[in-house]
Amino acid sequence: MVRIGAGEVVVLEGSGGAGGRASGQAAVGLPVVVPVRGCGGSPVQGGDVGAVACDAVGALDWGGQPRTLPTGPARPRTDGRRRIMLSAADREEVSRGIAEGTSGQAIAARIGRAPSVVSREIARHGGRERYRATRAARVAVQARCRPKARKLDRDVLRAGVITRLRAGYSPDQVAGRLRHEHGGEHAERVADTVSHEAIYTWIYALPKGELAKQGILLRSGRTRRHPRGRRSSPGARIVGMTSIDARPAEASDRAVPGSWEGDLMIGKGGRSAMATLVERTSRYTVPVALPAGRRDADTTCDALIAAVAGMPAQLVKTLTWDQGSEMAAHAAFSLASNVDVYFAHPHSPWERGTNENTNGLLREYFPKGTEITDDQTYLDLVARELNNRPRRILGYRTPAEVFTDLLTSSIASTG
C-alpha cells in the first residue's frame, strides 16, 4: 500500500495493493519514509533492506511501481571522511579492534571510515602484530611535517647524480647506471633513493632558474611536466620501393645485427639538414652531413654511400627508411653499398621507432628552429658523446660498448 502525505511517501510492503507482494510471501522491512523527489526516489535510510519509491506525483500516476532493493550487508557511512586524518580516538579504536581479533571492515564500520583507510593505516604502522596507537599517531605527525627533505638531497650519491645530469644523461640513464655500478648489497637502497622518478621530482621542485645555475638541462628542455603530442608527416610514393613487410625476420626482431634505420633531420626554415643512421640492435648512431643542407635524392644517396663505405659489411645489411623523396635513388644506393633498402608505411613512425627515438636525442644538440651544420667532424663528436651514454634498453651499457662487442664477435665468427 502507498500512502501519500504532505511532502512524503510512506511505502508499506507486504500489505497487498499495487506495491505489495503476492499472496504467500513474507513482508519485508518496516514502513520507510522518503522525501518526494524525481523518479528513482531515494535509497532506503534505515535497515538492511527496504524499498525505493518513485515520484508519487509523477511516476506512480503513470503506472510506476515501487522497486525492491536486493538484500545485502550494510556498508559504513563515511560522510566524505576518507581524506580526513584519523584522530587519536580512531587509532585507539583500531588498536582495540586488532586486540579483539576484529576484521578490518568491522573496525572501519565502528569508526565510520572506509575499509581501505583502516587497511592502509594498519599496514603503514607495522601490521596487526606491531600496530600501536600512540606510535602510529607520533609517526603520522612526523610525516606531516613540511617542508620535507627529498631523498636526493639527503643521499651521498647526489653529487654523482648532478655530474651525470650535467653530462647529458637522462634521469632514467642516471638511475640505471648507478644501479649498474652500485649493485650487490647496496642495490636496493640505490634503487629506492635515486630512482628516475626521484630525480625528476627533485628537478621539477627546484626554484626557477636553479637548473641553469646547476648547469643542468634536460634533453626536452622543459622544467616542468606537460603532455606531449606528435604530428604525422606526409609521405611520398617511391618508385620501385620494397615495403617493410618484406624485411627479413631477423631484421625485424633484432636477432641478427646489421639492420639500420634512417631518416632526415631538418634545420631552421628547411635550409639545412642531415641524415641520421642508427643500428637497431646496438642503437649505435651515425649522423651524416649533407653538403650545404641539400637533401635531394642524389645528394642524399652519395652521402649515405660514403657513410657506410667504411663500415664492416657484416654489420650493414639492411636500411629502413620512411617514404621521403630523399630516398628516391635507393636503387643506386643498394647497388653501390650492397645494402637492401626497405620503406615503412606512410605515417607510421613507430615502424622506425629506434630512429625516431635517436632523432629525439640528437635534438638536444640541434634543437628545432636552429641551423644544422654540414661539418662532419662536428657531427662525429656529437655521435661519440651520444654513443657513450648508457641506455636502459641495453641494460645500461653504452651503444659503443655493444657495437664493439658485435663487431668483435662477427670478426671472430668469420675469421
Helix content: 25-40%
Report, as a whole number of angstroms, the end-to-end distance: 97 Å
Q: What coarse outline follows from CA principal-axis ratios? A: elongated
Number of domains: 4
Corresponding CATH architecture of the largest domain: 2-Layer Sandwich
Query: Radius of gyration in whole Å, from Cα?
Result: 34 Å
**CATH level 4 superfamily of the largest domain:** Ribonuclease H-like superfamily/Ribonuclease H
String of helices and strands: EEEEEHHHHHHHHHHHHEEEHEHEHHH
Say what the CATH topology of the largest domain is: Nucleotidyltransferase, domain 5
According to DSSP, the number of beta strands is 10
Structural class: alpha+beta
CATH class of the largest domain: Alpha Beta
Major sheet characteristics: 5 strands, mixed
Proportion of residues in β-strands: 5-15%
Give the overall pLDDT as a whole number: 77
Total number of helical segments?
Answer: 17
Low-confidence stretches: 1-73
Description:
It is elongated and about 85 Å long. The protein is α+β, with helices and mostly antiparallel strands and 415 residues long. It has 17 helices and ten strands. The strands form three sheets. The chain has a five-stranded mixed β-sheet with strand order 8-7-6-9-10, with helices on both faces. It folds into four domains: 1-74, no CATH class; 88-143; 151-214, no CATH class; 244-414, Ribonuclease H-like superfamily/Ribonuclease H (Nucleotidyltransferase, domain 5). The relative contact order is 0.07. 37% of the residues lie in helices and 11% in strands.
